[in-house]
Amino acid sequence: MNRNRWTLVAVGLATFMTYLDNNIVNVAIPDIQRELGLTTAGIEWVVSGYILTFAGLLLAGGRLADAFGRRRLFLIGLAVFTASSLFAGLAGDATTLIAMRGLQGIGAAAVTPTTLAIISATFTDPRERNAAVGIWGGVGALALAVGPVLGGLLTQHVSWEWIFWINVPFGIATIALGAWAIQESKEDEARRLDLAGLGLSTASLFALTWGLIEGHDRGWTSAGILSAFAFAAAAAVAFVAVERRVEQPMVDVSLFARREFTGGIVALMLWAFGLFGIYFFTSLYLQGVLGFSPTKAGAAFVPMAVLMAVSAVLSDRVAARYGAYRSTGFGMLAMGLAIGSVTLLGADASFWSLMPSFAVIGLAGGMTIPLTATVLGVMPTSQAGVASAVFNASREVAGLLGITVIGAVLTSRQGAALADGSTPVDAFLSGYRAGLLLAGALVVAGGAAAFGSLRRAHREALREAADETARDDLVLAG
């Protein structure tokens, strides 16, 4: 195995670890609460503290990786993540645990943007890069589903501390492997750090993420939440203004004028909105309505994730044969329809009756990986860290939006059904189905956005290839 493949292994392991910590904690919450005496707010921040620092610092992490070296930031971020995982398991009180979860998020925000940037710098051939991105996407999909199952098994059969400690041996091994296999890369010409852009982007993402996390408990129309959203919007507007004015911007906002870049980001966000939102509330459906245990509920997602991982790995071959705009557009259409088909199930659904819809969601969802390659391909290689950060930040925010908006739809419809005399189970199903239909419709809309934006890029690539062939023919004729 050559060094490039070992680089991909290191990047894959780091991706698996950081994605895993998005949801491995959820099933361990009752045990953690009982042992540490957590309040309701403390429970929420054990989960949300990681998401807040992770999403809030992604763009900053991407820019720092481009400036100071992707390998360097990868190793530093992984060391922070691994050490904070060790101390999270050793935490004897809520404050320490929440602080360590926040520190884990900081480490993940340094690691995650470097993963795609390292792939972009290592695999310079477009075909090899697309295949590597497919493997990266498959690893991420697998981590999202394995999290609840692994968390349940460790909590039930060992102890909750091991949901954090399991990161330590893998983290140490990945640091050693990455230090050996990964070649250092950074921007071709040193650019001045855009401190104003760094500060404004971080402030906007922090405020937006905090508002989305806290909105349900504090009230969406409360002064604090409205102020957070207003601040996030103002900081975002100021960020765009700064980036348009400075000589060496952190993000070249003119890229958003390119249809394949903007369309790809929009499609990615709609994909994440649907998948993350439904993933969260389907767990409630499986346990609260169907009576699944936490381990069985987690196991129900494993076939979906395995199929999504396999599909992601194969997505570049399908895209090469049929065109990325066709494979991605069709994949998101099928995924949206499959999400909607879950509405046909009710309170008497079985484990196996869920599998057809879950299987299609997995297979079709993996076909969207070429969108990631498109976003990376449009950005200059020297800004691969920022490109990766833009992608990951868009997905994280869209996932939180999915949970927030679908949760609001579910709660509203559930409340109306209860007022009309429905049983609690029927009322939940009414809201859950409404949320599913909304998510499915948005994923289908994302498929249309992907089809339209990538088709133009596909045609331009064909024209460039034809022009190059014609020039070669002229040279040979001459």
Verbal overview:
By secondary structure, the chain is mainly α. It contains 18 helices and no strands. It starts with a helix and ends with a helix.
Quaternary form: single chain
Main sheet record = none
> Strand pairing plus helix content: what structural class?
mainly alpha
Uncertain runs:
none
Q: Quick one: how many beta strands?
A: 0
Helix content: over 70%
Q: What string gives the helices and strands in order? A: HHHHHHHHHHHHHHHHHH
Morphology: globular
Overall mean pLDDT:
82
How much beta, percentage-wise? Answer: under 5%
Q: How many H/I helical runs?
A: 18
Distance from first to last alpha carbon: 44 Å
Radius of gyration from CA coordinates: 22 Å
Topology overview:
Layout: H1 3-20, H2 29-36, H3 40-56, H4 58-68, H5 70-90, H6 94-122, H7 126-157, H8 162-165, H9 167-181, H10 195-218, H11 223-245, H12 259-289, H13 294-322, H14 324-341, H15 351-366, H16 370-378, H17 384-419, H18 424-477
Helix pairs in contact: 1-6, 1-7, 1-9, 3-6, 3-10, 4-5, 4-6, 4-10, 4-17, 5-6, 5-9, 6-7, 6-17, 7-13, 7-16, 10-11, 10-17, 12-16, 12-17, 12-18, 13-14, 13-15, 14-15, 14-18, 17-18
Summarize this entry quickly.
The protein has 18 helices and no strands. It is mostly helical. Helix 4 crosses helix 5 and helix 6 packs antiparallel against helix 7.
